[in-house]
Fold this protein.
Amino acid sequence: MAGKTLSDKILDAHALDDDAGATHRRVRIDALLGHDATTALIADAFEERNLKVWDPDRVILTNDHFSPPATAERADISNRFLAFARNCGVKHLMLDRGICHQLLVESPLCQPGGLIVGADSHTIMGGGIGACATGMGSTDILYALATGTTWMRWPETIKVELVGSMPDHCSGRDIILSLLQQLGESGGQYRSLEFHDLTEPKLSQDNRFAVSNMAVELGGKFGLFVPDEVTAAYCEARDGVPPSGLIRPDVDAVYERVVTIDLGAMRPMVAKPWSPANVVEVAELNETPITVAFLGSCSSGRLSDLREAADELQGHQVDPGVRFVVIPASVEVFKAALRAGYVESLTEAGAIFNHSSCGPCGGIDKGVLGATDVCVSTSNRNFRGRMGHWESQTYLASARTVARAARRGRLAPDLY
Amino acid sequence: MANDIITGRAWVFGDDLNTDVIHPPEFFSLHPDKVKRGLFHKFDPTLQSRLEPGDILVGGKNFGCGSSRETSMRSLLLNELGAIVAVSFARIFFRNATNNGLRCFTFAQPDVRHTIVEGDRLTLDVSASELQPANGDSISLAPTGPFIQKIWAAGGLLHMPPFGPSA
Ligand code: SF4
């Protein structure tokens, strides 16, 4: 018998039927995540059917897209969402606490080996601690919310080995941008991307989240790190108890392909407009003046990102031609950044802080781009028009690169 | 119940057509009119008003990549698109389409997509997995497995057990 990959093992453990040969099978889920926008879409259909949530203790709902709402229509959507969540008796309704994906990984409901579905594509970020977590549309979520089950195909797995030691000025963002450069926007389509951290020292949990978050930009279904001592330490610090029985792939697991990335050779990377896979090294860029810098989104906006930006800007000023918007991924991250002094350093340097929410990622809230704006961003998608005007341009990079560009007023080949 | 034979004009797109282009986030709404109007709005503000029921979107690789927002799917349904034929689909988009009964097919041979030009009259035979242009040879599509067909036949996921009659 050929060995099993990590997602094979996790899905096997959640299968509800014993029809191992079927293309699609029913599985039970451990947790469900939803946010204001996509959950509001199912509220009427759910209530009309007189459905009940299969297990209110295993559901996290949060308002993050419209937090707080900027227009009357959004306030109505938000209120519909809140009424629905309260009616359902959902245990973890987290009002204005941050971006749903960050709240998921801050919750004990997100465990290594778990199977989690969410009403948003970046749910995949739960893979950063070894969960099979994946995004779905509202109809799927309605079904899962009522039944605690969903349908799934067992995906083929691409093994991604991370080796070497990462240079100080690089981060998880550079790793995933480099993988996007290699594989392209559909290079991981339907696949489980299984990350093996063989680096020395090991990647931090924040860096792993950055990698897993953008695995969906490769088309991935799961983007999961093989759990190890970093995972265990993170869960223990969060939950007060170590995670139970970490599942690992078999040593003879069958992979569709193996990709190795040597972090020793890693350079700061940038995705140019209008694709997250349109990636070059910072050193290959032409001088490009910017008007907006954005540090935030579920893709970044974590404590280490804020620390890197604060390091870069400590005692310096943001270029007068640049608006630098910073949004911590959650209120917990914001509080930790306050305690560490990062908020003060960044504010002194000229950055502005918005409330923990999606913000201009997705063209939603304060900081959206106009026609002539050129933005360098730590978010995950630079699709045309996503952050605002159809003519605006977004470059994706790490927090450090965003901060350096904000200080310089431009992206440039000699930022490093 | 959607028809087994779908007829409409072709609208041709390239690779990696993402959901932000299909339906810009600004048109996210609980109001069907607004959701309907948003289809392709930034890409080409005149496109939505030119669509007719039954029209078929023809795409390249990775059709529908990006967001899971089901408003993209609702907009396609509200505009009564007949089907989508592409080289490949992004996972979440394919699920959303299937769950809502919108037929998504992939080409048996990806290169033939280049023989279809915008405005071509197409006839899609769902049970034969075949696409027939008004002028030209018929094009084979990859057959959809029984699982997907079961959801189509039910009329979408919310008509499947436990919501609908047991299969
Ligand atoms: S921060 Fe951006 S990518 Fe993340 S959930 Fe919000 S809109 Fe989506």
